[in-house]
Amino acid sequence: MGDVLDIEATQWLTEAEQLAEKLGRTRAAIARVIFGQEAVIEQVAITLLSGGHVLLVGVPGLGKTKLVETLGTVLGLDARRVQFTPDLMPADILGSEVLEEDAHGKRSFRFIKGPVFCQLLMADEINRASPRTQSALLQAMQEHKVAIGGEVFALPSPFHVLATQNPIEQEGTYPLPEAQLDRFLLEIEVGYPDEAAERAMLLATTGGTEAKAAAVLTGAELLAAQALIRRMPVPETVLEAILKLVRGARPESAILPAVQKNLAWGPGPRAAQALMLATRARALLQGRLAPSVEDVLALAEPVLRHRMALSFAARAEGVKLGEMIALLKASIA
Predict the structure, then answer these.
(1) Which residue ranges form the domains of the chain, and what is each CATH number?
(2) On the chain, which terminus has fewer CB atoms closer than 10 Å, C or N?
């Protein structure tokens, strides 16, 4: 029995080291096209390696669409983009049935697949669509299938959604309900690049030729990577840190008085699952074969930010959600 376990451990180590090398080349290929967003690239890669979906929050013009196109090329995925607008209907995303008549006059319905039938879908400005349309997409994200006309159609595998939100123009938008936000593994804030990165971007994108992304992985290799990451051992200290962080963010079970006072509700078990997967992915992405408490601290904010809410009194007093997460992180550091 021990020999079998040793063989399995050795095999996992070999596969993990090979994957770590490929992931390094993947990040390098993305960085040749996307400038000054290293943290965003890392967190998006963590989400995809964890098998989840990501919500990108940032003002227009920061390369979110370019990032999705580049990821599709580098990861060998079929990528598509949908611009969400108030008049967008669920059928515009999922697809619809059309009535057709053959040469003999026989009529029948045929299902025409919508853009959701891809491997990497960019849902641009998701909060501009109606709640009905948002729900249609979010249901597909959760179940990886679409039900139309009494039939169920499986989505491709892997299937990931990268949704974007503009934090500035909120007039005429439909904010995602908290229960739907929980479907996203990470919420990533996309900020402005620093001066050096912006300088490099100007020189690289306004000349005669522009760098193009090249394929490094395939969809099948991404699925294998996701399975490999789930087999990564997690130290007991990391498990305890995840539980302490997530359970400590719930007002009813919190130890910190500030959390009890200022939070209306906290993260559910899905947050702990997200942290468990994401810490493993971050470790492997950085060439390590086991996660650490530092990984938990680094991913606490993007995992928890959209799964917690301040009370009305706390918002009135100017309390920030980031302050609460910082207190939680300090309690386990």
Answers:
(1) 234-333 (1.10.8.80)
(2) N
